[in-house]
Amino acid sequence: DQQVKQNSPSLSVQEGRISILNCDYTNSMFDYFLWYKKYPAEGPTFLISISSIKDKNEDGRFTVFLNKSAKHLSLHIVPSQPGDSAVYFCAASPNAGNNRKLIWGLGTSLAVNP
Amino acid sequence: GAGVSQSPRYKVAKRGQDVALRCDPISGHVSLFWYQQALGQGPEFLTYFQNEAQLDKSGLPSDRFFAERPEGSVSTLKIQRTQQEDSAVYLCASSLRPDVSGANVLTFGAGSRLTVL
Known about the structure:
Distance between the termini of chain A: 37 Å
Number of strands of chain A: 11
Oligomer: heterodimer
Radius of gyration of chain A: 13 Å
Distance between the termini of chain B: 33 Å
Largest interface: A-B, 23 and 30 residues
Shape of chain B: globular
Largest sheet of chain A: 6 strands, mixed
Structural class of chain A: mainly beta
Order of helices and strands of chain B: EEEEEEEEEEE
Structural class of chain B: mainly beta
Order of helices and strands of chain A: EEEEEEEEEEE
Shape of chain A: globular
Number of helices of chain B: 0
Helix content of chain B: under 10%
Helix content of chain A: under 10%
């Protein structure tokens, strides 16, 4: 049973518009959430994280929102650029720094069209 | 080096063969992780080293899988008597601090894609 779910396998967005990638989790013990980005033939690259004590974290064009009661988080990319085209993985852990317990979603493939 | 380096990038093995996958982490990184990523899946944890000590091998799927990091830098993941279900991308990641608490971002290598025929 998937504890971290990314229900949209793919998403297509026009350049300049907002991309919204969603992630749901089932385990209430998860306390720390991360987004990684992966280009073909490369390893995942850390993008942004959020602790459960916050509901929002922003880094440039990237913002992650966390709704603990709904067990839902989302990554917003504004404005989207063609270079953002990649697979985005949501991951969750019981606490920050516990990469051994990281549970990953299946990923969402984002295509940003010029 | 500047990043995490893995070799070989691609490996094709016949069922029953032994394979060895190498990971060269970022110099000075204390923590080293191995993950397995099957097609269409997210990475799954295999094993963790803090310097040369293998502190967690709970994710290794069977005793055919063995990992070592004898001098606390380069690590090797060995798979004996490979099976078709071992086909996956094997990702290595390193991080600066021990995997205990506080944000500890992973830097991943590009992975080694293993295909077992």
